[in-house]
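Morning - zinc ion inputs below, output right after.
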Amino acid sequence: MFLFSFYEKQSIELKNNIKQILLFFLYISFVFFSGYYFFKEFSFFYPITFLALLTPVFIFPGRVKLYVVLLFVFLYIPYFLNLSHFILFGDVINSSSLNAVFDSNLQETIGFIKHFFNLKILFLLLSFVSVFIFVLIKIKNIAYSQSIYKFNFAFLKICFICILFCLVKIFVSYDTNILLNGYRLFNEEKSVFKKIRNERIIQKFQNIQTISVDSDKTAKSETYVIVIGESVDRKHLGIYNYNRQTTPLLSKTDNVYAFDNVVSPNAQTLDSLTKALTFYDNVNFFQSKRSIINFFNDAGFKTFWISNQSFSGWGKAGLITLIARDAAKCGFINRFSWESLKSPYDEEMIPVLKKALADTSEKKIIFIHLMGSHGPYADRYPEKFNVFKNDSNWRTQTVAEYDNSILYTDYVLKKIIDELSQKKDMSYMLYFSDHGEDVYEDEKSTFAHADFIGTRHMYEIPFVLWISDAYKANRPDIVKDIEKFKNRPYSIQHLTNTIPELSNLESPDIDKTKSLFYEIKPSSVAKNINEIKNKIWLYRVNNKKRLLHYFDKYDGFQIDVNFNEDGSYFNVSPENISGNANLDEMFQNISGLKSKYFLLSFKNLSYGNKEKALHELERIADKHKLDKKHILIEASEIEYLNIFSEKGFYTSFLLSDYSYDKAHEYRNYIHDIEYDIEKLSKSKVSFVSSDAKFFMYVNFYFPSIPHLFYALDKNHQELTEYILKTDKKAAAVFVPDIRKFYE
Ligand SMILES: [Zn+2]
């Protein structure tokens, strides 16, 4: 009887206990499995963690209600926050959102928190709280009155130790814990930001002046918008004659100017934009020189930064964010972690733009950072813009998706222009991409962008300017010549020298010569050019036979020479090798030599041979009665040419090869040009020479020195004609044997 009642009691107790444990099991399951399944891939540790969470019920059977409360605080609330974040922004809480809450101004924090006042979220909260209250009321302590459970205790102790070990492992490895991981990244970024900020030298931009405008026409307010695109290859825009009309709206908007020769300095966002947005000086882009945002703050503008890119930036240090945060107002709408490459659609920034435009400040500049065409392309536009389709293979399908993203950007840009037009302010919108993108340009091409695999498509970017009617009326200085600048080769590395001028500002801190709109005044053509009668000269006359054959047909000849140091004479040969011909012998017994011009391409000019070579050249000139002004010495070693200039010879600096067949050369060609300009400024040479294919650059960047060109390509006849007609500074063009053309 006693035994029976014992077992009966036990079985009732067991039944009760099972009920309690089951209730508890459901209480944890409600958030646990769904939660982890939602956020991360399933891991072996999750069920073990789950068991671990169950264990305290057995160990402290008398404290079950307290445990329910604790779990609500430490499991339910974090999960509620994560889930509502996921519902609102499509991603779990990450450093971007933590930044928005903890590390920004109050207004942004409130703005962020306001999102949570939403029916779905309220419903979620209600269901969480109801489950909690229901369980709290229903659950009872678990009874362990008999020794039969002692076995359970021993067993549980072992389990508990194992499970505790697993639990610690999970929580120590941040990657498996979303909240902790987000917090760790947030802290890391914060300390990087802090370090950079502390190292900065805060120097105000001084003496910023307004460029004079016609006061009768002055609009009351100035509102300027800079739109930074993402991963756009110029070639894919309809406005640049792409075979698909990807920019139908921009193409038919008035006062839109598409500049077709602009490149980015790098193929990656961070590298390119830190250069474009700061007063970059190659060494210390941010600490010593400040950003364009600082410039406008100091100029009395109200500055805004609206972004659809991740707050934490691409990579650990969000340097773009660091620049952005100097703006008076920031609006980051993207709450995805940067690794996920997800984003809301760009048009979701329009309401934020509207708010900025409604601000009553008289002078405003608004930067808008698009997600643009960042891969995966198909994620960047709503279904409505899924216009171009070509799924014949995955490559063409990817190109079609890319083109759709451009089509969508066109729509967003038009919306921005529409908002601006309504304001009737003096305003412009400047759109450019941070870098280009290679979308399967050839069979071998790996698509996307990176400097180490860089192709020209990764650097050739769109650069589009829209101006308002009031702007047009106020800035005739810009508008008058704008067509002229549309083909100017330009790198956005110098953008901080263009944006102020475009925004009606000037300052001693701005290098005007690096502005896109810097006008090169046509300087007078050097007198000596008139001495050269015929500007088409024969290329590579490296033996006497050839010289005699063409002697009457050309006025000038290009000859390759090497200086032989042992014998102190000039070898005539194309390479740095000893040829048969000797320059002195070549000039022997030719009547009429005096009337001709000779360009000597000095292939091995060096510090060691320059004086001996000069001496020998003077001897030859003397012997053959040649005018020193009829001899031009050309070399790429500009520093050794000065002594020839000083002795009365003409000299020519052979410019670098600005060819961009290879990616890295292409990236650097603007840099090469600048380097050459600098070298030239310190020398006494009389000409620059270059391959004719760089005619446009040479014409633009070396406006005050006569040019010599090598036109050796297939199309050399047209090119020669074109150069001689358009370039007043062209002194001579060297061509291969082209008697047909010449006669
Ligand atoms: Zn980018």
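Note: The two ends are 133 Å apart (CA to CA).

O.
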